[in-house]
Design goal:
The complex is a heterodimer of chains A (about 270) and B (about 325). Chain A is globular and about 75 Å long. With about 270 residues, chain A is α/β, with parallel strands linked by helices. In chain A, strand 10 and strand 11 (about 170-175) form a beta hairpin. In chain A, the strands form three sheets. A nine-stranded mixed sheet of chain A has the order 11-10-9-12-8-1-6-7-13, sandwiched between helices. The longest helix of chain A is centred in the middle third of the chain and has 19 residues, at about 95-115. The model of chain A has no long low-confidence stretch (mean pLDDT about 95). Chain A is built from six helices and 15 strands. In chain B, strand 2 (about 10-15) and strand 3 form a beta hairpin. Chain B has a seven-stranded parallel sheet with strand order 7-11-6-1-4-5-12, sandwiched between helices. A five-stranded parallel sheet of chain B has the order 15-14-16-17-18. Chain B has helices at about 20-35, 50-55, 75-90, 100-115, 230-240, 245-250, 280-285, 315-330, and strands at about 5-10, 10-15, 15, 40-45, 60-65, 95-100, 120, 125, 135-140, 145-150, 155-160, 180, 195-200, 215-220, 240-245, 270-275, 295-300, 310-315. The radius of gyration of chain B is 22 Å and the shape is elongated. Helices cover about 25% and strands about 25% of the residues of chain B. The relative contact order of chain B is 0.11. The mean pLDDT of chain B is about 95. The chains are: A alpha/beta (about 270), B alpha/beta (about 325). At the A-B interface, helix 3, helix 4, strand 9, strand 10 and strand 11 of A face helix 3, helix 4, strand 7, strand 9 and strand 10 of B. Strand 11 of chain A pairs antiparallel with strand 13 (about 195-200) of chain B.
């Protein structure tokens, strides 16, 4: 049994290291490193594991600017066999609906180019910059495939995939008809590291680039801004109106007495 | 006349409604009032008539139900097909889902099928004055940035909204509303359901309802070890509060993930929030800054939590928290 898996990844700014400029109150993106969306690294690891177990091919794809090919290169050194960058100015400004449309079109094209059919399409459960968790299900819808979101573990039988899903308060075990789209939360083990030899193997490989010219079956009216039904009308840093009173005192008793006094005065408890 | 209905999806589990659906009914009321819209509760499941009746009591004008075996356990395929059918039949102007696991699983699928815009995981909703559209507000970039999003042209305009951000209305048993049963009008071909639930396992022994807590006592990495959790529990006992935590505490395994507050946990808005040994990373504050009064106790005077606190105490929580608990206990007597 062979498992051909496509993994969709995104290069994102490390949101843990984003700071707010205290003067302009805007996001400081300068100097913030680009990383592979952490959930996507788990998806790549899950795909690499399945390949080891069942055989097959792992193709990693990303939609983004040319520099995103760096992230794809990294994936080539941790288990991916082929990498495709989907990049075109016409794709810029896409919301999740347009992104799902473009990625689904690219996946169909890659099946043609690689002469294979994907059994599974993996995405991270969400990207840490947008946090929408919508692109995976929308790829599934565009391709007319079953979906299983929030996966913790995936195993396979002949024509089915068994997915352990993280749900509120526990987990579900779900039988899913393949081909299917699976979005990944995490895996039991940390994603593998590249070694010297996997890295030099990856260096020899090329990241294939697909633009709107190669993806000629895409309707450009459904891509980018024109294909995006949502509009961002305003962005701002979260503002909080708080009293900001520091309670001062020389002893624990004094501090606590003052706090309880305030709680009582304001009838807070 | 153009349809201005606002649909609220009422998620159910074993026939029982989750709170978030009722919260969204209440959240939609100011929009409905301004746009002269009707609020319609959409309830899909098995034995869900009571959940629909209750939706009226919580403020919906009417309800549409699908009550059949094929909806007894959630599946993306059955739910997406059924709800798409109803959207196409009734053409609502707006549709909201709770941003739960299932809500965020099906809403993108449905939005894609009807080719409309969907805004994920909103923490506020209102009206965009310029366009008259629903203004969907959501945190992005890990909670560092807020974005207002509209869907100007396509309908329905759709969004998923976080549980616990809004409060449900007082239940009014005298409210009346029509309940339309659509069950007989759509059947899902079993072949269309491509997933099958084999097993559900509850990992969590106890149910925790942070979203409805009036007082929350939350601990962060500063509590130092699992052995100090009792300090939080004792303060929660005396204040009638519920214990919660920040991400590092959940990740260290000191508390269960279902008590985690923040961007990757729950969003809460209690009247009083004690932040104890919590530094105040945006990751955490994104989930609690809507609290009524925030009281921060931290040994680091530079901790960002003090920037969003109403009252702050710099000091050793191991001394202050037990003293506070003791004082409150004495006062009660």
């Amino acid at each position: 049994m062979n498992m051909n898996i496509c993994v969709c990844i995104k290069q994102v700014p490390d949101t843990n290291r984003i700071k707010i400029d205290p003067v302009t109150n805007t996001l400081v993106r300068k100097g913030v490193p680009s990383i592979i969306n952490p959930f996507d690294t788990y998806a790549v690891e899950m795909a690499a594991k399945l390949k080891e177990e069942y055989g097959g091919k792992v193709v990693v794809i990303s939609m983004g600017p040319p520099q995103a090919s760096k992230a794809l290169k990294v994936c080539l050194s941790v288990g991916a066999d082929e990498a495709y960058l989907i990049s075109d100015r016409a794709f810029g400004g896409s919301d999740t609906l347009a992104t799902g449309y473009i990625l689904a079109g690219a996946i169909k094209k890659i099946e043609e180019l690689e002469d294979l059919k994907f059994d599974l399409i993996f995405c991270g459960k969400q990207a840490i910059d947008g946090d929408t968790a919508q692109v995976g299900p929308q790829i599934a819808e565009q391709l007319g495939l079953a979906q299983a979101t929030y996966a913790l573990d995936v195993s396979c039988t002949n024509d089915h995939t068994i997915v352990k899903r993280e749900v509120d308060g526990g987990y579900d075990t779900v039988l899913v008809q393949t081909p299917a789209v699976v979005t990944v939360v995490h895996t039991d083990q940390m994603p593998r590291y590249a070694t010297y030899s996997t890295r030099s193997e990856a260096k020899k490989k090329q990241v294939h680039v697909l633009s709107s010219a190669e993806l000629s079956e895409l309707d450009l009216a459904q891509c980018g801004l024109s294909g995006s039904p949502t509009r961002v009308v305003n962005t701002y840093t979260p503002s909080v109106q708080k009293l900001g009173i520091m309670i001062e005192g020389s002893s624990t008793t004094e501090l606590v007495d003052k706090l309880v006094g305030i709680l009582d005065d304001k009838r807070l408890l | 006349m153009m349809n201005t209905d606002i649909w609220i999806y009422i998620e159910t589990e074993n026939g029982k409604a989750l709170n978030v659906g009722y919260e969204l009914i209440n959240a939609a009321r100011p929009i409905a009032a301004q746009k002269n819209s009707k609020i319609v509760a959409l309830v899909v499941g098995k034995n869900i008539l009571k959940a629909a009746q209750d939706a009226i009591g919580y403020g919906a004008d009417s309800a549409i139900i699908l009550d059949a075996d094929e909806y007894a356990s959630y599946s993306t395929d059955a739910y997406a097909e059924a709800i798409t059918y109803l959207i196409n039949k009734y053409d609502p102007e707006t549709m909201m889902f709770g941003a739960t696991t299932n809500g965020r699983d099906m809403a993108p699928r449905i939005a894609c099928r009807v080719s409309t815009g969907l805004t994920a995981d909103c923490t506020d909703i209102g009206i965009d004055e310029a366009s008259g559209c629903v203004r969907w507000t959501r945190p992005t970039f890990g909670g560092n940035l807020m974005a207002d999003i509209i869907c100007p042209e396509r309908r329905p305009q759709m969004g998923t909204v976080r549980p616990g951000v809004f409060r449900k209305a007082e239940f009014d048993p005298t409210r009346k509303g029509n309940i339309i049963d659509e069950t007989a009008n759509i059947h899902i071909d079993p072949e269309h359901i491509r997933t099958k639930l084999l097993e559900h396992v509850d990992v969590v022994a106890e149910a925790v309802n942070l979203e409805d807590a009036d007082v929350i006592v939350a601990g962060g990495r500063g509590i130092g070890s699992v052995d100090n959790i009792h300090l939080l529990e004792e303060l929660a006992d005396v204040t009638g509060g519920t214990v919660a935590c920040s991400r590092p505490v959940a990740e260290a395994g000191w508390m269960n993930h279902n008590r985690q507050v923040g961007q990757s946990g729950k969003t809460v808005s209690p009247s009083v929030y004690f932040a104890i040994g919590i530094s105040g990373a945006v990751q955490h504050t994104a989930g609690m800054q809507g609290s009524g009064t925030i009281i921060a106790i931290n040994s680091d005077p530079e901790a960002p939590i003090f920037d969003i606190a109403d009252y702050g105490i710099v000091g050793d929580l191991n001394a202050i928290v037990p003293a506070l608990t003791k004082k409150l206990k004495e006062r009660k007597l």
